[in-house]
Design a protein that fits this description.
This protein is mainly beta and 544 residues long. It has 4 domains: 22-162, Lamin Tail domain (Immunoglobulin-like, Sandwich); 186-285, Immunoglobulins (Immunoglobulin-like), CATH 2.60.40; 296-454, Lamin Tail domain (Immunoglobulin-like); 463-542, Macroglobulin (MG2) domain (Immunoglobulin-like), CATH 2.60.40.1930. 1% of the residues lie in helices and 40% in strands. It has 1 helix and 38 strands. Strand 4 (57-60) and strand 5 (65-67) form a beta hairpin. The chain is globular.
Length: 544
Protein backbone atom coordinates (compact mmCIF):
# COMPACT_ATOMS: atom_id res chain seq x y z
CA UNK A 1 0.00 0.00 0.00
CA UNK A 2 1.31 3.42 -0.93
CA UNK A 3 0.39 6.67 0.70
CA UNK A 4 -0.05 9.86 -1.30
CA UNK A 5 1.11 13.00 0.49
CA UNK A 6 -1.47 15.58 -0.62
CA UNK A 7 -0.86 19.31 -0.43
CA UNK A 8 -3.10 22.30 -0.91
CA UNK A 9 -2.68 24.06 -4.25
CA UNK A 10 -1.97 27.77 -3.86
CA UNK A 11 -1.59 29.94 -6.95
CA UNK A 12 0.01 33.36 -6.58
CA UNK A 13 0.75 35.35 -3.45
CA UNK A 14 -1.24 35.29 -0.24
CA UNK A 15 -3.75 38.10 -0.54
CA UNK A 16 -4.16 40.81 2.08
CA UNK A 17 -7.87 41.26 1.46
CA UNK A 18 -10.80 38.94 0.99
CA UNK A 19 -13.49 39.14 -1.68
CA UNK A 20 -16.01 41.76 -0.62
CA UNK A 21 -13.62 43.78 1.54
CA UNK A 22 -13.61 46.42 -1.19
CA UNK A 23 -16.60 46.72 -3.51
CA UNK A 24 -17.40 48.62 -6.68
CA UNK A 25 -19.94 51.03 -5.20
CA UNK A 26 -20.80 53.51 -7.96
CA UNK A 27 -20.28 53.69 -11.74
CA UNK A 28 -20.62 56.58 -14.18
CA UNK A 29 -20.52 54.75 -17.49
CA UNK A 30 -22.60 57.10 -19.70
CA UNK A 31 -22.55 60.73 -18.59
CA UNK A 32 -24.70 63.43 -20.19
CA UNK A 33 -21.85 65.29 -21.89
CA UNK A 34 -21.28 65.14 -25.63
CA UNK A 35 -18.13 63.56 -27.04
CA UNK A 36 -16.25 61.08 -24.87
CA UNK A 37 -18.07 60.70 -21.55
CA UNK A 38 -16.50 61.53 -18.22
CA UNK A 39 -16.36 57.95 -16.96
CA UNK A 40 -15.41 56.85 -13.48
CA UNK A 41 -16.01 54.32 -10.74
CA UNK A 42 -16.06 54.54 -6.97
CA UNK A 43 -14.67 51.87 -4.64
CA UNK A 44 -15.80 51.45 -1.04
CA UNK A 45 -13.84 49.81 1.81
CA UNK A 46 -16.38 47.77 3.75
CA UNK A 47 -13.92 46.92 6.54
CA UNK A 48 -12.79 48.67 9.70
CA UNK A 49 -9.13 48.87 8.62
CA UNK A 50 -7.18 50.82 6.01
CA UNK A 51 -6.24 48.80 2.91
CA UNK A 52 -3.26 49.66 0.69
CA UNK A 53 -3.75 49.02 -3.01
CA UNK A 54 -0.21 48.27 -4.21
CA UNK A 55 0.93 47.10 -7.65
CA UNK A 56 -0.66 43.68 -7.13
CA UNK A 57 -4.08 45.38 -7.27
CA UNK A 58 -5.65 46.08 -10.66
CA UNK A 59 -8.95 47.41 -11.95
CA UNK A 60 -10.13 46.47 -15.43
CA UNK A 61 -13.09 46.34 -17.78
CA UNK A 62 -11.71 43.15 -19.33
CA UNK A 63 -9.79 45.10 -21.97
CA UNK A 64 -7.87 48.01 -20.47
CA UNK A 65 -6.23 47.49 -17.09
CA UNK A 66 -4.80 49.84 -14.43
CA UNK A 67 -2.40 48.84 -11.61
CA UNK A 68 -2.43 50.87 -8.41
CA UNK A 69 0.75 52.26 -6.86
CA UNK A 70 0.38 52.18 -3.09
CA UNK A 71 -2.96 53.99 -2.87
CA UNK A 72 -4.60 53.78 0.56
CA UNK A 73 -8.35 53.42 0.87
CA UNK A 74 -9.29 54.19 4.45
CA UNK A 75 -11.56 52.14 6.67
CA UNK A 76 -15.20 52.71 5.70
CA UNK A 77 -13.82 55.07 3.04
CA UNK A 78 -14.21 55.75 -0.68
CA UNK A 79 -11.79 55.89 -3.61
CA UNK A 80 -12.71 57.39 -6.99
CA UNK A 81 -11.00 56.17 -10.17
CA UNK A 82 -11.11 58.19 -13.39
CA UNK A 83 -11.46 56.09 -16.56
CA UNK A 84 -12.08 58.62 -19.35
CA UNK A 85 -12.42 62.39 -19.73
CA UNK A 86 -14.84 64.29 -21.95
CA UNK A 87 -13.41 66.05 -25.00
CA UNK A 88 -15.53 69.15 -24.34
CA UNK A 89 -16.47 69.39 -20.67
CA UNK A 90 -13.85 69.20 -17.90
CA UNK A 91 -13.94 66.34 -15.44
CA UNK A 92 -16.56 67.24 -12.80
CA UNK A 93 -14.38 66.54 -9.74
CA UNK A 94 -10.80 65.72 -8.78
CA UNK A 95 -10.50 61.91 -8.74
CA UNK A 96 -8.32 60.08 -6.24
CA UNK A 97 -6.73 57.99 -9.01
CA UNK A 98 -6.32 58.78 -12.73
CA UNK A 99 -6.48 55.64 -14.92
CA UNK A 100 -7.58 57.49 -18.06
CA UNK A 101 -4.52 56.46 -20.10
CA UNK A 102 -5.00 52.71 -19.64
CA UNK A 103 -7.75 52.01 -22.18
CA UNK A 104 -10.62 51.37 -19.77
CA UNK A 105 -13.69 52.50 -21.73
CA UNK A 106 -17.07 51.49 -20.33
CA UNK A 107 -19.82 50.39 -22.70
CA UNK A 108 -23.05 52.39 -22.63
CA UNK A 109 -25.30 49.35 -22.99
CA UNK A 110 -23.39 47.23 -20.48
CA UNK A 111 -19.89 46.27 -19.44
CA UNK A 112 -17.93 45.03 -16.44
CA UNK A 113 -15.78 46.61 -13.75
CA UNK A 114 -13.47 44.14 -12.01
CA UNK A 115 -11.16 44.68 -9.02
CA UNK A 116 -8.42 42.10 -8.50
CA UNK A 117 -5.54 41.46 -6.14
CA UNK A 118 -2.80 39.14 -7.44
CA UNK A 119 -5.29 37.73 -9.93
CA UNK A 120 -7.96 37.06 -7.25
CA UNK A 121 -11.27 38.79 -7.90
CA UNK A 122 -12.10 40.99 -4.90
CA UNK A 123 -15.26 42.35 -6.52
CA UNK A 124 -16.78 42.51 -9.99
CA UNK A 125 -19.89 44.12 -11.44
CA UNK A 126 -21.32 43.09 -14.81
CA UNK A 127 -23.82 45.93 -15.26
CA UNK A 128 -26.47 46.62 -17.88
CA UNK A 129 -28.36 49.73 -18.95
CA UNK A 130 -31.51 47.62 -18.45
CA UNK A 131 -30.95 47.61 -14.69
CA UNK A 132 -33.47 49.55 -12.53
CA UNK A 133 -33.31 53.29 -13.16
CA UNK A 134 -31.78 52.75 -16.61
CA UNK A 135 -32.59 54.79 -19.71
CA UNK A 136 -32.99 57.70 -19.44
CA UNK A 137 -31.73 57.51 -15.83
CA UNK A 138 -28.19 56.25 -15.31
CA UNK A 139 -27.88 55.59 -19.07
CA UNK A 140 -26.82 59.03 -20.27
CA UNK A 141 -29.23 61.50 -18.73
CA UNK A 142 -27.05 62.57 -15.79
CA UNK A 143 -27.35 60.20 -12.81
CA UNK A 144 -24.75 57.55 -12.01
CA UNK A 145 -25.38 53.85 -11.34
CA UNK A 146 -25.35 53.46 -7.55
CA UNK A 147 -25.20 50.42 -5.32
CA UNK A 148 -27.96 50.26 -2.72
CA UNK A 149 -26.31 48.00 -0.13
CA UNK A 150 -22.51 47.50 -0.10
CA UNK A 151 -23.04 44.14 1.65
CA UNK A 152 -25.55 42.99 -0.95
CA UNK A 153 -24.68 40.94 -4.06
CA UNK A 154 -22.61 42.77 -6.66
CA UNK A 155 -24.37 41.43 -9.73
CA UNK A 156 -27.97 41.47 -8.59
CA UNK A 157 -29.80 44.24 -10.44
CA UNK A 158 -32.06 44.55 -7.39
CA UNK A 159 -29.07 46.04 -5.55
CA UNK A 160 -28.52 48.88 -8.04
CA UNK A 161 -30.32 51.97 -9.26
CA UNK A 162 -29.90 55.52 -10.56
CA UNK A 163 -28.60 58.23 -8.23
CA UNK A 164 -31.24 60.73 -7.20
CA UNK A 165 -29.25 63.65 -8.59
CA UNK A 166 -27.16 64.31 -11.66
CA UNK A 167 -23.46 63.50 -11.36
CA UNK A 168 -23.91 60.88 -8.65
CA UNK A 169 -22.18 61.01 -5.29
CA UNK A 170 -18.45 60.38 -5.89
CA UNK A 171 -16.52 59.99 -2.65
CA UNK A 172 -19.63 60.05 -0.49
CA UNK A 173 -22.50 57.85 0.72
CA UNK A 174 -24.73 56.84 -2.18
CA UNK A 175 -27.98 58.74 -2.52
CA UNK A 176 -30.00 55.49 -2.62
CA UNK A 177 -28.06 53.76 0.18
CA UNK A 178 -30.26 51.42 2.19
CA UNK A 179 -31.32 47.80 2.15
CA UNK A 180 -33.30 45.50 -0.09
CA UNK A 181 -35.98 43.24 1.41
CA UNK A 182 -35.01 40.17 -0.58
CA UNK A 183 -32.43 39.37 -3.23
CA UNK A 184 -32.65 36.61 -5.83
CA UNK A 185 -30.06 33.81 -5.57
CA UNK A 186 -26.63 34.45 -7.05
CA UNK A 187 -24.50 31.87 -8.91
CA UNK A 188 -20.71 32.22 -9.24
CA UNK A 189 -17.58 30.14 -9.94
CA UNK A 190 -19.50 27.66 -12.07
CA UNK A 191 -17.54 25.00 -13.93
CA UNK A 192 -16.67 21.36 -14.40
CA UNK A 193 -13.70 19.31 -13.19
CA UNK A 194 -11.80 17.92 -14.98
CA UNK A 195 -12.14 20.61 -17.62
CA UNK A 196 -11.22 18.17 -20.42
CA UNK A 197 -12.33 14.73 -19.16
CA UNK A 198 -11.49 11.38 -20.71
CA UNK A 199 -14.00 8.54 -21.20
CA UNK A 200 -12.97 7.19 -17.77
CA UNK A 201 -13.74 10.38 -15.86
CA UNK A 202 -16.73 11.22 -13.72
CA UNK A 203 -17.21 14.97 -14.09
CA UNK A 204 -17.95 17.21 -11.12
CA UNK A 205 -20.15 20.21 -11.88
CA UNK A 206 -19.99 22.78 -9.10
CA UNK A 207 -20.93 26.38 -8.38
CA UNK A 208 -21.07 28.79 -5.49
CA UNK A 209 -24.73 29.60 -4.84
CA UNK A 210 -25.63 32.28 -2.30
CA UNK A 211 -28.82 33.96 -1.15
CA UNK A 212 -29.99 36.20 1.68
CA UNK A 213 -32.55 33.52 2.50
CA UNK A 214 -32.45 29.76 1.89
CA UNK A 215 -31.73 27.88 -1.33
CA UNK A 216 -34.62 25.47 -1.79
CA UNK A 217 -33.67 24.02 -5.19
CA UNK A 218 -30.43 23.61 -7.13
CA UNK A 219 -30.60 21.53 -10.30
CA UNK A 220 -28.15 20.74 -13.08
CA UNK A 221 -29.76 20.01 -16.46
CA UNK A 222 -27.52 18.35 -19.02
CA UNK A 223 -27.56 16.55 -22.37
CA UNK A 224 -25.03 14.45 -24.28
CA UNK A 225 -24.58 15.30 -27.96
CA UNK A 226 -27.95 17.11 -28.03
CA UNK A 227 -29.80 14.03 -26.75
CA UNK A 228 -32.85 14.26 -24.49
CA UNK A 229 -32.16 16.41 -21.44
CA UNK A 230 -31.53 14.81 -18.05
CA UNK A 231 -31.16 16.40 -14.60
CA UNK A 232 -29.27 16.00 -11.33
CA UNK A 233 -29.92 17.48 -7.90
CA UNK A 234 -26.96 19.53 -6.64
CA UNK A 235 -25.91 19.20 -3.00
CA UNK A 236 -23.96 21.22 -0.45
CA UNK A 237 -23.14 18.21 1.74
CA UNK A 238 -19.42 17.69 1.08
CA UNK A 239 -20.07 14.38 -0.70
CA UNK A 240 -20.76 15.48 -4.30
CA UNK A 241 -17.55 17.22 -5.29
CA UNK A 242 -18.79 20.35 -3.50
CA UNK A 243 -15.89 20.93 -1.09
CA UNK A 244 -17.21 21.07 2.50
CA UNK A 245 -20.77 20.78 3.77
CA UNK A 246 -22.58 24.07 4.28
CA UNK A 247 -19.99 26.24 2.47
CA UNK A 248 -22.37 27.45 -0.31
CA UNK A 249 -20.54 25.35 -2.91
CA UNK A 250 -23.02 22.98 -4.56
CA UNK A 251 -22.01 20.00 -6.67
CA UNK A 252 -23.19 16.99 -8.63
CA UNK A 253 -21.48 14.29 -10.68
CA UNK A 254 -22.09 13.44 -14.33
CA UNK A 255 -21.20 9.84 -15.21
CA UNK A 256 -18.48 9.09 -17.79
CA UNK A 257 -19.51 9.28 -21.45
CA UNK A 258 -17.88 8.12 -24.67
CA UNK A 259 -14.82 9.86 -26.09
CA UNK A 260 -15.64 12.65 -28.52
CA UNK A 261 -19.02 13.38 -26.89
CA UNK A 262 -19.99 16.92 -25.99
CA UNK A 263 -21.90 17.47 -22.76
CA UNK A 264 -23.89 20.69 -22.37
CA UNK A 265 -25.25 21.76 -19.00
CA UNK A 266 -26.86 24.65 -17.14
CA UNK A 267 -28.11 25.30 -13.60
CA UNK A 268 -31.49 26.37 -12.24
CA UNK A 269 -31.71 27.54 -8.61
CA UNK A 270 -34.57 28.84 -6.46
CA UNK A 271 -34.82 30.37 -2.98
CA UNK A 272 -37.47 30.35 -0.28
CA UNK A 273 -39.05 33.51 -1.74
CA UNK A 274 -39.52 31.75 -5.09
CA UNK A 275 -36.88 33.92 -6.72
CA UNK A 276 -34.95 31.90 -9.28
CA UNK A 277 -31.94 32.15 -11.55
CA UNK A 278 -30.87 30.20 -14.63
CA UNK A 279 -27.28 30.20 -15.91
CA UNK A 280 -25.92 30.24 -19.42
CA UNK A 281 -25.29 26.84 -20.99
CA UNK A 282 -21.76 25.50 -20.48
CA UNK A 283 -20.13 22.62 -22.36
CA UNK A 284 -17.20 20.23 -22.28
CA UNK A 285 -15.91 17.73 -24.83
CA UNK A 286 -14.61 14.34 -23.75
CA UNK A 287 -11.07 13.79 -25.00
CA UNK A 288 -9.60 10.50 -26.14
CA UNK A 289 -5.94 11.29 -25.46
CA UNK A 290 -3.82 10.25 -22.51
CA UNK A 291 -3.55 13.72 -20.99
CA UNK A 292 -5.52 16.93 -20.75
CA UNK A 293 -3.29 18.29 -23.50
CA UNK A 294 -4.14 18.19 -27.17
CA UNK A 295 -1.57 18.13 -29.96
CA UNK A 296 -1.20 21.92 -30.11
CA UNK A 297 0.92 22.55 -27.02
CA UNK A 298 2.33 25.57 -25.21
CA UNK A 299 6.00 25.22 -26.12
CA UNK A 300 7.71 28.49 -25.14
CA UNK A 301 6.82 31.42 -22.87
CA UNK A 302 8.56 34.80 -22.76
CA UNK A 303 6.87 36.31 -19.72
CA UNK A 304 9.58 38.74 -18.54
CA UNK A 305 11.90 39.93 -21.32
CA UNK A 306 15.20 41.57 -20.40
CA UNK A 307 14.69 45.11 -19.18
CA UNK A 308 11.03 44.44 -18.29
CA UNK A 309 10.07 45.12 -21.91
CA UNK A 310 6.38 44.18 -21.89
CA UNK A 311 6.24 44.47 -25.69
CA UNK A 312 8.67 41.57 -25.92
CA UNK A 313 6.22 39.10 -24.35
CA UNK A 314 5.07 36.13 -26.43
CA UNK A 315 3.71 32.59 -26.22
CA UNK A 316 4.70 29.97 -28.77
CA UNK A 317 2.46 27.01 -29.66
CA UNK A 318 3.81 23.85 -31.33
CA UNK A 319 1.92 21.21 -33.32
CA UNK A 320 3.41 17.93 -32.13
CA UNK A 321 1.09 15.81 -34.28
CA UNK A 322 1.47 14.56 -37.85
CA UNK A 323 -1.51 16.50 -39.21
CA UNK A 324 -2.51 20.14 -39.70
CA UNK A 325 -4.57 21.63 -36.84
CA UNK A 326 -7.27 24.26 -37.44
CA UNK A 327 -6.68 26.73 -34.58
CA UNK A 328 -9.20 29.32 -35.76
CA UNK A 329 -11.27 30.82 -32.90
CA UNK A 330 -9.13 29.11 -30.26
CA UNK A 331 -8.63 31.30 -27.19
CA UNK A 332 -5.53 32.10 -25.13
CA UNK A 333 -5.99 33.17 -21.48
CA UNK A 334 -3.82 33.85 -18.45
CA UNK A 335 -5.03 33.16 -14.89
CA UNK A 336 -7.85 35.70 -15.24
CA UNK A 337 -10.86 34.55 -17.26
CA UNK A 338 -11.52 38.09 -18.47
CA UNK A 339 -8.12 38.26 -20.20
CA UNK A 340 -8.58 36.58 -23.57
CA UNK A 341 -7.08 36.58 -27.04
CA UNK A 342 -8.94 34.81 -29.85
CA UNK A 343 -6.87 33.33 -32.66
CA UNK A 344 -8.32 34.59 -35.97
CA UNK A 345 -10.63 32.30 -37.92
CA UNK A 346 -8.85 30.41 -40.67
CA UNK A 347 -5.57 30.09 -38.76
CA UNK A 348 -3.98 26.65 -39.19
CA UNK A 349 -0.78 25.14 -37.83
CA UNK A 350 0.95 22.48 -39.92
CA UNK A 351 2.50 19.33 -38.50
CA UNK A 352 5.70 20.20 -36.67
CA UNK A 353 5.10 23.92 -37.11
CA UNK A 354 4.87 26.83 -34.67
CA UNK A 355 2.40 29.64 -33.98
CA UNK A 356 3.53 32.73 -32.06
CA UNK A 357 1.08 34.96 -30.17
CA UNK A 358 2.48 38.27 -28.94
CA UNK A 359 1.57 41.40 -27.05
CA UNK A 360 3.14 43.44 -29.87
CA UNK A 361 3.43 41.33 -33.06
CA UNK A 362 5.42 44.00 -34.95
CA UNK A 363 8.07 44.13 -32.23
CA UNK A 364 8.51 40.34 -32.23
CA UNK A 365 8.63 40.06 -36.04
CA UNK A 366 11.31 42.75 -36.30
CA UNK A 367 13.32 41.55 -33.31
CA UNK A 368 13.48 37.90 -34.42
CA UNK A 369 13.18 38.36 -38.22
CA UNK A 370 10.07 36.17 -38.42
CA UNK A 371 6.61 36.59 -39.92
CA UNK A 372 3.10 35.38 -39.12
CA UNK A 373 3.06 36.52 -35.47
CA UNK A 374 -0.51 37.02 -34.24
CA UNK A 375 -1.84 39.64 -31.81
CA UNK A 376 -1.97 41.99 -30.15
CA UNK A 377 -2.52 39.98 -26.98
CA UNK A 378 -3.86 42.82 -24.83
CA UNK A 379 -2.91 41.45 -21.43
CA UNK A 380 0.45 40.91 -19.74
CA UNK A 381 1.81 37.77 -18.11
CA UNK A 382 2.75 38.18 -14.45
CA UNK A 383 6.47 38.11 -13.77
CA UNK A 384 6.08 36.32 -10.45
CA UNK A 385 4.06 33.46 -11.90
CA UNK A 386 0.91 33.06 -13.94
CA UNK A 387 -1.09 30.59 -15.99
CA UNK A 388 -1.16 30.23 -19.77
CA UNK A 389 -4.31 28.43 -20.89
CA UNK A 390 -5.37 27.36 -24.39
CA UNK A 391 -9.01 26.61 -25.25
CA UNK A 392 -10.35 25.28 -28.52
CA UNK A 393 -13.19 26.87 -30.47
CA UNK A 394 -15.91 25.21 -28.36
CA UNK A 395 -14.37 26.22 -25.04
CA UNK A 396 -12.59 22.97 -24.15
CA UNK A 397 -9.32 23.40 -22.26
CA UNK A 398 -6.67 21.87 -24.52
CA UNK A 399 -3.46 22.82 -22.70
CA UNK A 400 -2.33 24.83 -19.69
CA UNK A 401 0.90 25.79 -17.94
CA UNK A 402 0.93 27.12 -14.37
CA UNK A 403 4.45 28.55 -14.27
CA UNK A 404 6.42 30.29 -11.51
CA UNK A 405 9.56 32.42 -11.35
CA UNK A 406 10.94 30.45 -8.40
CA UNK A 407 12.38 26.97 -7.88
CA UNK A 408 11.67 24.31 -9.12
CA UNK A 409 10.87 26.42 -12.21
CA UNK A 410 13.88 27.83 -14.12
CA UNK A 411 14.60 31.25 -12.62
CA UNK A 412 16.77 32.72 -15.41
CA UNK A 413 13.62 33.31 -17.48
CA UNK A 414 12.53 35.98 -14.99
CA UNK A 415 13.97 39.08 -16.63
CA UNK A 416 17.48 37.86 -17.49
CA UNK A 417 16.70 37.50 -21.20
CA UNK A 418 15.92 33.79 -21.83
CA UNK A 419 12.43 32.43 -22.27
CA UNK A 420 10.90 29.33 -20.71
CA UNK A 421 11.37 26.47 -23.19
CA UNK A 422 9.60 23.13 -23.06
CA UNK A 423 12.25 20.39 -23.12
CA UNK A 424 10.03 17.64 -24.55
CA UNK A 425 6.74 18.47 -26.32
CA UNK A 426 5.60 14.92 -25.67
CA UNK A 427 5.72 15.44 -21.89
CA UNK A 428 3.27 17.12 -19.55
CA UNK A 429 4.12 20.81 -19.78
CA UNK A 430 2.59 21.67 -16.43
CA UNK A 431 5.51 19.94 -14.67
CA UNK A 432 8.36 22.28 -13.79
CA UNK A 433 11.07 19.71 -14.47
CA UNK A 434 10.00 19.54 -18.12
CA UNK A 435 11.04 23.17 -18.69
CA UNK A 436 14.42 24.87 -19.07
CA UNK A 437 15.72 28.36 -19.83
CA UNK A 438 16.28 28.84 -23.53
CA UNK A 439 18.83 30.82 -25.47
CA UNK A 440 19.80 34.40 -24.58
CA UNK A 441 16.71 36.00 -26.11
CA UNK A 442 14.28 33.17 -26.92
CA UNK A 443 13.49 31.26 -30.11
CA UNK A 444 9.91 32.17 -31.17
CA UNK A 445 8.77 30.47 -34.37
CA UNK A 446 11.62 27.96 -34.46
CA UNK A 447 12.93 24.90 -32.61
CA UNK A 448 13.77 25.31 -28.96
CA UNK A 449 17.39 25.31 -27.84
CA UNK A 450 17.35 21.50 -27.98
CA UNK A 451 15.72 20.58 -31.29
CA UNK A 452 12.29 18.96 -30.93
CA UNK A 453 13.32 16.36 -33.51
CA UNK A 454 15.58 14.84 -30.88
CA UNK A 455 12.62 14.00 -28.67
CA UNK A 456 10.28 11.07 -28.57
CA UNK A 457 6.94 12.34 -29.91
CA UNK A 458 3.64 11.99 -28.08
CA UNK A 459 3.52 8.29 -27.11
CA UNK A 460 1.29 5.96 -29.07
CA UNK A 461 2.59 2.57 -27.89
CA UNK A 462 2.09 2.85 -24.13
CA UNK A 463 -1.17 3.69 -22.40
CA UNK A 464 -2.41 4.53 -18.91
CA UNK A 465 -5.90 5.10 -17.50
CA UNK A 466 -7.54 5.53 -14.08
CA UNK A 467 -10.65 4.18 -12.43
CA UNK A 468 -12.41 5.96 -10.93
CA UNK A 469 -11.31 9.57 -11.41
CA UNK A 470 -12.13 11.55 -9.25
CA UNK A 471 -11.60 8.99 -6.49
CA UNK A 472 -12.05 9.02 -2.71
CA UNK A 473 -10.67 5.68 -1.49
CA UNK A 474 -8.37 3.87 -3.92
CA UNK A 475 -7.14 4.71 -7.40
CA UNK A 476 -6.69 1.86 -9.84
CA UNK A 477 -3.93 2.70 -12.32
CA UNK A 478 -4.32 0.60 -15.47
CA UNK A 479 -1.46 0.56 -17.97
CA UNK A 480 -0.36 -1.17 -21.14
CA UNK A 481 3.07 -1.86 -22.64
CA UNK A 482 3.59 -3.72 -25.96
CA UNK A 483 6.62 -5.74 -24.75
CA UNK A 484 8.39 -6.84 -21.57
CA UNK A 485 10.10 -3.77 -20.13
CA UNK A 486 10.72 -1.70 -17.01
CA UNK A 487 7.77 0.48 -15.97
CA UNK A 488 8.05 3.42 -13.63
CA UNK A 489 5.02 5.21 -12.17
CA UNK A 490 5.51 8.44 -10.23
CA UNK A 491 3.22 10.94 -8.51
CA UNK A 492 3.89 14.69 -8.58
CA UNK A 493 2.23 17.65 -6.90
CA UNK A 494 1.13 20.67 -8.93
CA UNK A 495 4.55 22.34 -8.48
CA UNK A 496 6.35 19.40 -10.03
CA UNK A 497 7.67 17.91 -6.79
CA UNK A 498 7.70 14.10 -6.79
CA UNK A 499 5.76 12.87 -3.76
CA UNK A 500 5.59 9.11 -4.39
CA UNK A 501 6.76 6.27 -6.64
CA UNK A 502 4.18 3.45 -6.57
CA UNK A 503 5.96 1.31 -9.17
CA UNK A 504 9.49 0.89 -10.56
CA UNK A 505 10.05 -2.67 -11.85
CA UNK A 506 10.01 -4.96 -14.88
CA UNK A 507 6.53 -5.77 -16.22
CA UNK A 508 5.30 -8.24 -18.81
CA UNK A 509 3.76 -7.19 -22.11
CA UNK A 510 0.06 -6.43 -22.12
CA UNK A 511 -2.35 -4.92 -19.62
CA UNK A 512 -1.43 -4.53 -15.95
CA UNK A 513 -2.64 -2.48 -12.99
CA UNK A 514 -1.71 -1.29 -9.53
CA UNK A 515 -3.94 -0.01 -6.72
CA UNK A 516 -2.95 3.26 -5.10
CA UNK A 517 -4.41 4.07 -1.65
CA UNK A 518 -3.98 7.73 -0.64
CA UNK A 519 -4.37 9.36 2.73
CA UNK A 520 -4.64 13.01 3.71
CA UNK A 521 -6.52 16.02 2.33
CA UNK A 522 -8.01 16.19 -1.15
CA UNK A 523 -6.04 17.57 -4.06
CA UNK A 524 -5.06 17.46 -7.73
CA UNK A 525 -2.00 15.37 -8.65
CA UNK A 526 -0.10 14.24 -11.74
CA UNK A 527 0.59 10.53 -12.27
CA UNK A 528 3.39 9.84 -14.76
CA UNK A 529 4.21 6.53 -16.40
CA UNK A 530 7.56 5.95 -18.15
CA UNK A 531 8.38 2.88 -20.26
CA UNK A 532 10.49 2.15 -23.36
CA UNK A 533 11.81 5.74 -23.37
CA UNK A 534 8.29 7.13 -23.60
CA UNK A 535 6.24 8.95 -20.95
CA UNK A 536 2.56 9.59 -20.49
CA UNK A 537 0.95 11.68 -17.74
CA UNK A 538 -2.56 12.10 -16.45
CA UNK A 539 -4.11 14.15 -13.70
CA UNK A 540 -5.94 12.48 -10.80
CA UNK A 541 -8.36 14.28 -8.49
CA UNK A 542 -8.55 12.97 -4.91
CA UNK A 543 -11.79 13.92 -3.15
CA UNK A 544 -13.46 12.99 0.12
Amino acid sequence: MYKLMCMLIIVGAVIAASPGDIVVNEIMYNGPESGTDNEWAELYNTTGADITLDSSWTITDGEGSFSFEGTVISADGYLTVKFAENDVEPFPFTPDVDASEMGILLGNSGDQVILLESGTVIDSVDYSDDWPGGYPGHDGSGPSLERIDPAGPSNSEANWGASTGDGGTPGAVNSIYGSVDDYPPEIADMGNDPEAPTPDDTVIVSATITDDGTITKAMCFYSVDMSEEDSLVMFDDGAHGDMGAGDDVYGCMIDPVAGGSTVRYYLVVEDDSLHSDTTWTYAYTVTTGDTIDGDLVINEIMYNPAGSDEYGEYVELYNRSGATIDAGDWVLKDNVDYNTFMIPAGTSVGAGEYLVLAKDPDTIEVRYSITGVLGPVDFSLNNGGDMVRLYNDVGTLMDFVDYSDSDPWPTDADGDGPSLELIDPGSDNNVASNWATGSANGTPGSANTVDVDEFVKFPENIRMSFAPNPFNAALTVNFYVPENCKVRIEVFDILGNRVAEPLNQNCTAGNSSIIYSPEGPAGLYLVKMTARGESVSRKALYIK
